[in-house]
Amino acid sequence: MTLFSKIAAGEIPSYKCGENDKFYAFLDINPVRKGHTLVIPRKEVDYIFDMDDKDLAEFEVFAKKVAIALRNAFPCRKVAEVVLGLEVNHAHIQLIPIDTEADCDFKHHIKLSDEEMKATADKILAEFNKL
């Protein structure tokens, strides 16, 4: 079982931003911007492009809903979608609220307290639940 599968199953604590029976969204614990969210399929797959077309389409639609919630919670010009997937062998989409392309700099991270992380996730989840 991957680290992300354990997070989605509730075996490892996370800051939940949205979920359904097939997908789970939670805050990145090493964010580049406030609201930096990871979206994962509950079904383990290492590489996003190994997903079958139907699952990949549903994954993107779910990520879109999370991105809308994120933008509503933290107004920004756009929400960047980044797929790298080398650090954890579980397909995931990174959603990052941005005002400039420089806001998507993975060499610089921010630190948020547990209280700030919880408040951030709660705000995104509240917006997600409205959609």
- β content, as a range? 15-25%
Proportion of residues in helical segments: 25-40%
The multimeric state of the shown protein is: single chain
> Mean pLDDT, rounded to whole units?
97
Number of helices: 3
What is the alpha-carbon Rg in Å? Answer: 14 Å
N-to-C order of helices and strands: HEEEHEEH
Structural class, by secondary structure, is alpha+beta
Shape descriptor reads: globular
- Uncertain residue ranges: none
Largest sheet: 5 strands, antiparallel
Instruction: Give the N-terminus to C-terminus distance in angstroms.
Output: 31 Å
Would you report the number of β strands?
5
Strand order of the largest sheet: 1-2-3-5-4
How is this structure best described in words?
This protein has helices at 3-8, 53-73, 114-130, and strands at 16-19, 23-27, 37-41, 78-82, 93-98. A hairpin with a 3-residue loop joins strand 1 and strand 2 (23-27). The longest helix is centred in the middle third of the chain and has 21 residues, at 53-73. It has a 5-stranded antiparallel β-sheet. The mean pLDDT is 97. The protein has 3 helices and 5 strands, in the order αβββαββα. Helices cover 34% and strands 19% of the residues. Helix 2 (53-73) packs across helix 3 (114-130). The chain has 131 residues and is of the alpha+beta class.
Summarize the structure.
The chain has 131 residues and is of the alpha+beta class. It has helices at residues 3-8, 53-73, 114-130, and strands at 16-19, 23-27, 37-41, 78-82, 93-98.
